[in-house]
């Protein structure tokens, strides 16, 4: 049954006008690009009691049954308290709040619409009116200066407008840049510089920061191009100076600003999600419209502005007239079905209805009517049957759903926008945490601006270099404390250099494998010993005060477990270091004689960096680089030492101690140290006619498969078991070959120089069989033979005097140990004796310091450089605690000390004793007086 009035049709029409798209979608809207028409100005004729109807419509728009509502405003044009349009200023009507302003507004009707639309109760956000508020504020200003000085007076007042907290300043200065949240930040920052902020706002030169002033200078009314600047144009709008301006143009400017603000709020921008949440146009409900009234003039100006500018605006106007207009009036009831329409514009494409649909007709004719600028182009007068006492009424529940604006696109909803903002932030934070490990306090990381550190995590190990406590390598308490002490001495050296800039600062890179991928083979004590030798030289350098004595800075570089990352460390962090820091004169240490170490040595030579290895002894390493020097004798010399020992060792009765050598070694083709030592020893023994046999293993567990001498019938106790492997395999080897042996009746064991790592470390020897007698090869034998006296600060070597360098090493080593006890983790630190690596590192760093002293006579006032240091390393011998390091004929110090030592109780406090030592005189064992072992004798082979 059809309704008895047009209430339903009116509400359908109102919904069709206010809803731009019943199914809003972001992508479809962007791709479609269809032109959206401004809504017609609907005039409803023949309505009695329009005041109540306007109130009901206003309530219907606001109480839609959902959270969303339509922006709306209502005005009773007959209301006695509604001020009249006042385009002619009354300068005597001073505002009660500010005597520089006049009371009232030029267009009170527009002012009330602004107040209504600015209310934020729609879930779409308040509509801001920066342009209109600025124009309205200007029209109320009383300027006392003449036309030439009026802009300056107005400039002084503008901060009041910007400080007022109105949407003018916030929208203009910030919203155009990035939205509400960032706008407050930008607004707060700009508030700190009012002069700069005022200049940005007034200049019109910054599109995002001064869009309001730019708009005034580019709109069409009052010919702004004649003013030259915003202040000049603004002064023409003031109450004091607009007497010569056309009132209609002033009114159109105000209305145009009002419509532009609405247009800006509804302008779809992909970067402004709030605009997509506006799914309903603002509706202005005007009651009591009469011909020739202020309200009619406002609607006429809206019609003309739309014709003249051709711009879209989203304003929906529904006016209730007291009497019909002087133009053709359609019937509201003749408007067809509107509920099925997706957009109002699609009605024009529907088949023509009978009787003619006035709304469809208007849609089809509007382009022609606006082109001809018809005075009623945008008006749609409709006669409606709306008796107040006939149902249905607007409050009917069946109409409530029509008032609910459609939900915004998912991409514009607050939670989705929040996710879109949050997810990139989370991803950015995640990426930052991944690519900038210092943000998550990762142990192996540094900021790009961190000085003296360059590290990276590779295969689970922290490799790179460091010269300060910002980065420490390994987690062993002794090694950690030793690194801290070295870095403390670095700081002291830097301070000494600042107080005496003429002292040269020598930087050496200590390069070793400080971390362990396999904790079963971790052995940091060897690196602790080498760093101790370097720290002693640092301490000695700090004690000197003359300009000729160089200071020493140690940069610790980690090549990873077994130096597996040595090549990468040289190619990346060290390459950058030597390029940026000319004080880096060389690399010392260098752990493990492997193929990877050889490649690293080659790369260091290509970079022009001298490298002096402390303990490497594999044959042929000097061929890897012309700038490589080796402080320890080669494996060829070690093989000759062992062969001499085997042939010359004598039992207590003077008979030969050994008839045969059993060589135990791992199968490791890339371990240059093991392969070259085994090959050299086999060749040496074969040349001398000494019987030999070899046993090898691939995995440590295979050592237990070898027959134990004490459990083997007929085992010849004149067979020497020579261990030619790495230190981590020696405890297993010792346990394997001593199975079943009685105390003091074990086989004769001789370990290579790698075993020295265990001998000097009480923690490591705890894994060996108790009271085991072990013979081993030791480099830097004089330091090892110094015994416990050296760590107590006494330089002693048997019964003979020691060189000055040896005495200084022991004195400073005792002081270093005392300082190390100051670290919480080393309160009980008491090494048994000085290690061979301490002596070698001490001599190698002393070698560099001597080269620096010698180069100063050649370089004069120039700082030392790597080329000069390399030359000095070749030309000058260095006499240190380990012997003479001379590279004049060969870059391997085969003349430095190497010996076969023996300990009868591994891990005990007993001193180490000498069996045979190189260099030696023919017919002598080379052992210093008072260090000879009484376990066995030795005579020159062949005698």
Quickly describe the structure.
The protein contains 30 helices and 24 strands.
What do you see in this structure?
- The chain has 943 residues and is of the alpha/beta class.
- Helix 6 packs across helix 11 (230-237), helix 18 packs across helix 28 and helix 19 (566-580) runs parallel beside helix 20.
- It contains 30 helices and 24 strands.
- The relative contact order is 0.08.
- Strand 17, helix 23 and strand 18 (748-751) form a beta-alpha-beta unit.
- It starts with 6 loop residues before the first helix and ends in a 5-residue tail after the last strand.
- Strands 7-8-10-9-11-12-13 form a 7-stranded mixed β-sheet, with helices on both faces. Strands 16-15-17-18-19-22-23 form a 7-stranded mixed β-sheet, with helices on both faces.
């Amino acid at each position: 049954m059809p309704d008895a009035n047009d209430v339903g049709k009116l509400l359908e029409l109102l919904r069709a006008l206010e809803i731009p798209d019943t199914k809003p979608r972001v992508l479809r809207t962007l791709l479609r690009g269809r032109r959206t028409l401004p809504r017609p100005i609907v005039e409803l004729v023949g309505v009695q009691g329009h005041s109540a109807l306007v109130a009901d419509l206003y309530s219907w728009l606001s109480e839609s049954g959902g959270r969303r509502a339509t922006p709306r405003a209502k005005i009773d044009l007959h209301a006695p308290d509604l001020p009249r349009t006042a385009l002619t200023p009354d300068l005597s009507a001073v505002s009660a709040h500010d005597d520089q302003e006049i009371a009232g507004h030029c267009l009170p009707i527009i002012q009330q619409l602004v107040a209504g639309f600015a209310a934020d109760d729609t879930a779409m956000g308040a509509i801001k009116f920066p342009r209109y508020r600025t124009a309205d504020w200007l029209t109320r200003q009383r300027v006392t200066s003449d036309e030439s000085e009026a802009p300056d007076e107005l400039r002084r007042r503008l901060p009041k407008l910007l400080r007022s907290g109105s949407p003018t300043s916030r929208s203009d200065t910030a919203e155009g840049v990035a939205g509400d949240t960032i706008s407050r930040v930008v607004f707060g920052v700009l508030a700190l510089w009012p002069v700069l902020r005022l200049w940005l706002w007034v200049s019109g030169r910054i599109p995002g920061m001064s869009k309001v002033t730019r708009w005034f200078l580019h709109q069409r009314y009052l010919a702004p191009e004649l003013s030259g600047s915003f202040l000049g144009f603004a002064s023409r709008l003031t109450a004091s100076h607009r007497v010569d301006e056309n009132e209609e143009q002033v009114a159109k400017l105000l209305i145009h600003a009002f419509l532009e603000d609405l247009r800006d709020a509804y302008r779809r921008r992909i970067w402004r999600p709030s605009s997509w949440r506006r799914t309903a146009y603002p509706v202005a409900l005007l009651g009591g419209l009469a011909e020739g009234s202020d309200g009619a003039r406002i609607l006429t100006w809206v019609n003309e502005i739309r014709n003249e500018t051709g711009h879209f605006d989203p304003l929906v106007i529904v006016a209730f007239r007291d009497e019909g207009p002087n133009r053709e009036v359609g019937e509201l009831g003749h408007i067809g079905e509107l509920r099925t329409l997706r957009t109002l514009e699609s009605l024009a494409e529907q088949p023509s209805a009978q009787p003619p649909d006035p709304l469809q007709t208007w849609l089809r004719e509007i382009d022609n009517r606006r082109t001809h600028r018809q005075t009623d182009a945008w008006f749609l007068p409709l006669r409606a049957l709306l008796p107040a006492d006939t149902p249905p009424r607007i409050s009917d529940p069946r109409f409530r759903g029509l008032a609910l604006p459609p939900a915004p696109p998912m991409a514009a909803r607050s939670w989705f926008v929040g996710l879109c903002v949050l997810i990139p932030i989370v991803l950015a934070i995640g990426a930052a945490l991944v690519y900038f490990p210092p943000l998550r306090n990762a142990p192996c990381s540094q900021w790009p601006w961190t000085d003296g550190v360059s590290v990276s995590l590779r295969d689970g190990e922290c490799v790179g270099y460091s010269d300060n406590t910002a980065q420490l390598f390994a987690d062993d308490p002794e090694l950690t404390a030793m690194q801290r002490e070295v870095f403390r001495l670095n700081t002291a050296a830097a301070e000494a250099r600042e107080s005496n800039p003429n002292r040269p600062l020598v930087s050496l890179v200590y390069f070793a494998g400080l971390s362990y991928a396999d904790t079963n083979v971790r052995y940091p004590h060897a690196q602790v010993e080498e760093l101790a030798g370097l720290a002693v030289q640092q301490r000695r350098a700090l004690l000197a005060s003359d300009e000729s004595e160089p200071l020493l800075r140690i940069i610790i570089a980690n090549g990873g477990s077994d130096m597996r990352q040595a090549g990468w460390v040289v190619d990346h962090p060290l390459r950058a270091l030597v390029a940026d820091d000319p004080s880096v004169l060389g690399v010392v240490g260098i752990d493990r004689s492997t193929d990877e170490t050889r490649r690293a040595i080659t790369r260091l030579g290509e970079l022009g960096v001298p490298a002096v290895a402390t303990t490497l002894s594999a044959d042929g390493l000097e061929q890897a680089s012309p700038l490589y020097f080796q402080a320890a004798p080669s494996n060829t010399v070690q093989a000759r030492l062992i062969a001499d020992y085997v042939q010359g060792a004598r039992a207590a009765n003077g008979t030969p101690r050994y008839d045969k050598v059993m060589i135990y070694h791992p199968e490791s083709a890339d371990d240059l140290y093991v392969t070259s030592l085994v090959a050299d020893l086999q060749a040496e023994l074969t040349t001398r006619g000494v019987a030999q046999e070899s046993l090898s293993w691939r995995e440590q567990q295979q050592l237990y498969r070898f027959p134990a001498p004490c459990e083997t019938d007929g085992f010849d106790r004149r067979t020497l078991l020579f261990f030619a492997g790495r230190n981590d395999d020696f405890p297993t080897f010792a346990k394997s070959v001593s199975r079943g042996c009685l105390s003091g009746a074990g086989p004769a064991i001789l370990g290579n120089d790698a075993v020295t790592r265990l001998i000097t470390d009480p923690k490591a020897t705890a894994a060996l069989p108790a009271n085991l007698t072990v013979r081993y090869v030791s480099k830097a034998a004089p330091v090892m033979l110094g015994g416990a006296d050296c760590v107590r600060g006494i330089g002693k070597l048997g019964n003979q005097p020691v060189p000055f360098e040896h005495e200084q090493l022991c004195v400073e080593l005792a002081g270093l140990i005392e300082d190390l006890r100051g670290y919480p983790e080393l309160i009980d630190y008491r090494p048994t004796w000085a290690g061979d690596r301490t002596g070698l590192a001490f001599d190698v760093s002393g070698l560099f310091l001597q080269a620096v002293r010698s180069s100063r006579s050649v370089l004069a006032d120039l700082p030392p450089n790597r080329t000069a240091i390399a030359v000095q390393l070749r030309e000058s011998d260095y006499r240190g605690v380990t012997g003479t390091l001379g590279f004049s004929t060969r870059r391997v110090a085969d003349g430095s000390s190497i010996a076969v030592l023996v300990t009868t109780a591994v891990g005990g406090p007993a001193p180490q004793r000498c069996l045979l030592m190189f260099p030696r005189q023919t017919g002598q064992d080379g052992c210093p007086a008072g260090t000879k072992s009484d376990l066995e004798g030795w005579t020159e082979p062949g005698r």
